[in-house]
Amino acid sequence: MNAFPQTIHFIGTNTPRRLELSARNLPVEGEIPPEIDGAFFRAVPDNAHAPMFEDDIALNADGMIARFNFEQGAVDYDIRYVETERYQAEKRARRALFGRYRNKFTDDPSVEGVDRTVANTTPVWHAGRLFMTKEDGRDPQTLATIGKWDFYGALKSETFTAHPRVDPVTGELFFFGYEAGGLCSREIAYGIADKDGNLVSEQWFEQPYCATIHDFVITEKYAIWPIFPTTADLERLQAGGAHWAHQQDLESWIAIMPRYGKVEEMRWIKGPVGISAFHEVNAYDDGELVHLDLCLTDTNAFSFMREAGGIHRPQQEIQGALTRWTIDMSKAEPVIEERPLGPPGDLPRLADADQGRPYNRVWYLSMNPEAQGPPMLGGPVGANFNALLRLEPGNGRLTAMGLPPGAGISEPAHVPSRDPDHGGWLLTVVDLPNGPPGMAAPHDYSSELWVIEADNVEKGPIAKVKTGLALRSQVHGAWVARARLDASKTT
Ligand code: V55
Ligand code: FE
Question: For position 1, what pLDDT does the model report?
Fold first, then answer.
């Protein structure tokens, strides 16, 4: 195949753009506070080649790393491919050689044994290095690919999560890898790296079934893995099928252990059947209680994972809520107490300093029920979010920033302020149709970077950076302040 399929995975903000470029001093409407000094990194999947299969999905695209550099009220933009082994092999061949999403049995035989990661999910900053998960290190100044990172050869796990957690006080990196012992293995590796980037522990344990575990959480006392029944099957993969299939009748689990403890101390708590979450917001200890906040849905939010499990439910009928699970760890048999915190949505962000601690601010994306006209097409589910919410979990106070008709919004990053009385800012890319609602072609839009006061989202942006481009959908992003960029390592 040398043309892109015309499916939800390749239209709207999923239209392949494939441009590596640099632009200085983008036009700015409004004023950017000079205190915003550093880089907003974005992970952008964008196919370098047309896919091998017509039913390919947006999450299978090559990773690009984008950077909005903020300095003295000015903004520069750069974007480059992550030069994975997979990207390099396809670049040489001038065509796709890797087949379906996380199924090596569908690859061209010429690339057997070549690392097939696309490093397209989250930019992670730790101990002076920028990582594009899964495993590739980046030079933050040039965006050049340095190579794979395995903690100086110490890491045994074959995989590494897209969602490690950094403790804001200790600077430690807490992470895990599922399928740690190979494709469809039930083994999970749990690792901790110290503030300098040295691996200080790696322990393995087994989950009840081979589930995709996209995210986990830490508190000051615990490490916690919510496990949802979207499972892998080797025979299905060997037959060329999907890696993940949701199982609506299977129970979910919480695995919880002291974060500096031994995996033998793991406790297992059974949860509701059939539910799913990709992202946890945060968790914290409240005496013996543990509060865990997550973006919960009543089935898997990705149609390709539902359909592989024989679940045929339209996207807009999926129910969910930002949900709090509370667990009393003093009990011999702890259970999950559940209550809704806020409207459904995903891509939650909090201030870095609140990670694993009591907190009262979360920002996340949602679908505005009052929005006029169709949403901006794109993203992994085919429609982009069109509202930014700010929620105070403690008291339920909810504020929102709506968007112009037909516009879409991507995951924000939070920039803290030095002023303790200022809540900082959010940076987020907004895609606006080039024309009246419903009139512009799905690929015809303009991407702007909006600067928003984090505690006044209802006011709308205080500045808009005009890229003059239509950017492809982002997955996750990260803010890295100037002082940390200046202390970066490239080895
Ligand atoms: C997600 C994203 C992925 C993926 C699996 O947000 C899950 C969820 C961008 O890639 O491979
Ligand atoms: Fe994610």
Answer: 55
Alpha-carbon gap, residue 206 to 420, rounded angstroms: 43
Give 151-163 as a DSSP string: TTTT---S---S-
pLDDT digits (tens, 9 = 90+) for 174-190: 999 999 999 999 999 99
Residue 491 Cα to chain centre, angstroms: 25
Residue 345 region by backbone torsions, left for phi larger than 0, else alpha for psi between -120 and 50, else beta: left
Mean pLDDT (whole number) for 389-397:
97
**Structure token digits, residue 183:** 């494709």
Instruction: Please give the pLDDT value at position 9.
Output: 98
Atom of ligand 1 nearest to the CA of 346: 6
Q: Determine the Cα–Cα distance for residues 53 and 327; give it in Å rounded to an integer.
A: 44
CB-based contacts of 318, cutoff 8 Å, min separation 6: 297, 298, 299, 301
Mean pLDDT of 329-342: 98
Q: Report the C-alpha gap between 21 and 64 in whole angstroms.
A: 11
- Find the 159 Cα to ligand 1 centroid distance in Å: 14
Query: At 152, is the pLDDT very low, low, confident or very high (cuts 50, 70, 90)?
Result: very high
Measured from CB, residues less than 6 Å from any atom of ligand 1 are 45, 59, 120-121, 214, 278, 475
Q: How much is the pTM?
A: 0.97
Question: What's the 332 CA to ligand 2 centre distance in angstroms?
Answer: 33
Q: Which residue has the tokens 């903000």?
A: 13
Distance (angstroms) between ligand 2 centre and the Cα of 41 equals 15
Contact 229, 247 (CB under 8 A): yes
Mutate to test the pocket of ligand 1, among 9, 14, 59 (most ligand atoms within 8 A of CB): 59
- CA nearest ligand 1 atom 11, residue: 59
